[in-house]
Write a structure and sequence with these properties.
Blueprint (H helix, E strand, L loop, with lengths): L4 E7 L3 H12 L4 E5 L5 H5 L2 H24 L10 H26 L2 E4 L1 E4 L4 E5 L37 E12 L3 E3 L12 E2 L1 H4 L8 E5 L3 H12 L3 E6 L10 H13 L3 E4 L2 E8 L2 E7 L5 E6 L1 E4 L3 E3 L34 E3 L12 H15 L14 E3 L4 E6 L2 H6 L4 E7 L4 H6 L4 E7 L5 E8 L2 H13 L4 H5 L9 H11 L8
Parallel strand pairs: 1-2, 1-6, 2-3, 6-17, 8-15, 9-10, 9-15, 10-11
Antiparallel strand pairs: 4-5, 5-6, 7-16, 12-13, 13-14, 18-19, 19-22, 20-21, 21-22
Helix pairs in contact: 1-4, 1-8, 3-4, 3-6
The chain binds flavin-adenine dinucleotide (FAD) and nicotinamide-adenine-dinucleotide.
Flavin-adenine dinucleotide binds next to helix 1, strand 2, helix 2, helix 3 and strand 4.
Length: 505
Amino acid sequence: MTINTSDVIVIGGGTGGYSTALRAAALGLDVVLVERDKVGGTCLHRGCIPSKAMLHAAELVDGITEARERWGVRATVDSVDWPALVATRDDIVARNHKGVEAHLAHAGVRVVRGSARLTGTRTVRVEDVPGTEGAQGVPGVRTDAAPGARDDPAPRAHDLTAPRTRDLVARRAVVLATGSRPRTLPGPAPDGRRVVTSDDALFAPGLPASVLVLGGGAIGVEYASFHRSMGAEVTLVEAADRIVPLEDADVSRYLTRGLKKRGVDVRAGARLLDAELLENGVRARLRDARGEIRTVEAERLLVAVGRAPVTEGLGLEAAGLTTDERGFVVPADWSRLETAVPGIHVVGDLLPPPSPGLAHASFAEGLLVAETLAGLPSAPVDYAAVPRVTYSSPQTAAVGLGEAEARVRGHDVCVNTMPLTAVAKGMVHGQGGMVKVVAEAGGGRVLGVHLVGPHVSEMIAESQLIVGWDAEPADVARHVHAHPTLSEAVGEVFLTLAGRGLHQQ
Ligand SMILES: Cc1cc2nc3c(=O)[nH]c(=O)nc-3n(C[C@H](O)[C@H](O)[C@H](O)COP(=O)(O)OP(=O)(O)OC[C@H]3O[C@@H](n4cnc5c(N)ncnc54)[C@H](O)[C@@H]3O)c2cc1C
Ligand SMILES: NC(=O)c1ccc[n+]([C@@H]2O[C@H](COP(=O)([O-])OP(=O)(O)OC[C@H]3O[C@@H](n4cnc5c(N)ncnc54)[C@H](O)[C@@H]3O)[C@@H](O)[C@H]2O)c1
């Protein structure tokens, strides 16, 4: 075996890539993982984890307000120390990062630091990334997959700017896991201060007093919610006729109501016409749903209009691969996530829908590809049963089909909806919200469950089993929910659908 040969090369060490690598190594495959930045990728360093850490801080601030306004607790928020918040957030990220590195090292995955490009169907060239320690791997992680990394003579003086390259060969497969980056729009480019994407919002110098958020998907809603909790004036602009437009219409309605109640100016069906940079902010012209033009000034414009797959410089053509018109790498066989070129697989945000662009879906895709490569039977990812959560205040959580989508797909549906405040614990929380279940008419299987309200991110787990296991309302109604809990509302909705309604008429 030559030092630069392995069974599997994974390009990209985000959640999709590192999960593939971990599982493949656990199944006895010799794995090289190439990452040009930090293992953990978008989710750990710029996405899920830092944003949820910040949203936790936001919940604490909201809790103090609720304590004062509803519960007679004489407490106020003096101020938020942004550097202190950032320090805690970054400590959580750093500890998780160390954990991922340790898992990879323990599994025997050889991590190579550098930028990878395909040079054939089983060959990959890795180039040093300027400003890093080069293609020598991550401290504490075995790096002998980088051929010559230990033995290469030091570069001669005139070589110092030339990137070093390493050629790797995969005996069995190459897995593409290069993820995605924020989409931007024509107009003022992100400058990290006045115009930001979710990447640089994390590292902005402070908390703005006003924010214009463009895009009412998960990122836009979460950041709008965060900044509102931190006291900013927030305008949330969504081009579609409702925020979170891919969710059930009642989810959008309840979420809009909740955000508006908290003072967020939600403008769906609106368009950004242009934006101009000011000394300390932006001035934007919007056309709203009624066609009226309105000018908004804000300290910060946060652009959250979706993400684009990363394939630039990946050398797809050298392996005989292309992308679709949106830039995604499309599998020829979704049950193996294998492209039209045998032995090249793809996971994570590089995949088009129905892969949902979510970290937990990419974990499932990594497991599937690794098990496929190890020759184990592995069920295709059941995308219909992947939960979708927005960690705003209020939160949303859903799994399966919305009502309109179920009807479009030809299902004869029956629907039951209940406000969370109809159960005692919902009244205690006092934040509104709802449970909606979409099922096949006549007691058939549950097609979708949709939740809005406090803590619904933690409540969706039972519903993903209900949808994933094709349960019927009567199956669920047999099981008792604890009293008093918010989950009781889910139980009540199923009891009614099963013809055994207790509190719901
Ligand atoms: C603000 C935000 C919040 C989010 N919150 C959530 C959430 O709460 N829950 C959730 O499920 N999802 C969330 N997501 C989505 C989630 O982050 C992505 O779905 C997930 O990170 C995709 O993983 P991936 O491995 O496909 O790609 P990535 O995580 O993007 O990883 C790709 C990796 O490949 C590396 N790379 C790229 N090209 C090369 C190359 N040529 N050579 C070597 N390395 C390369 C990159 O450096 C990167 O580390 C969020 C995203 C954002 C932006
Ligand atoms: N909690 C979570 O699971 C979570 C959190 C953040 C991000 N993510 C994932 O990250 C990815 C990116 O998130 P995102 O919110 O940026 O993308 P998205 O595609 O989910 O939402 C973008 C929104 O911007 C709107 N839009 C597009 N152009 C616009 C314009 N010119 N003006 C106004 N609105 C416009 C779209 O209609 C859409 O609703 C998604 O896959 C998302 O699921 C997940």
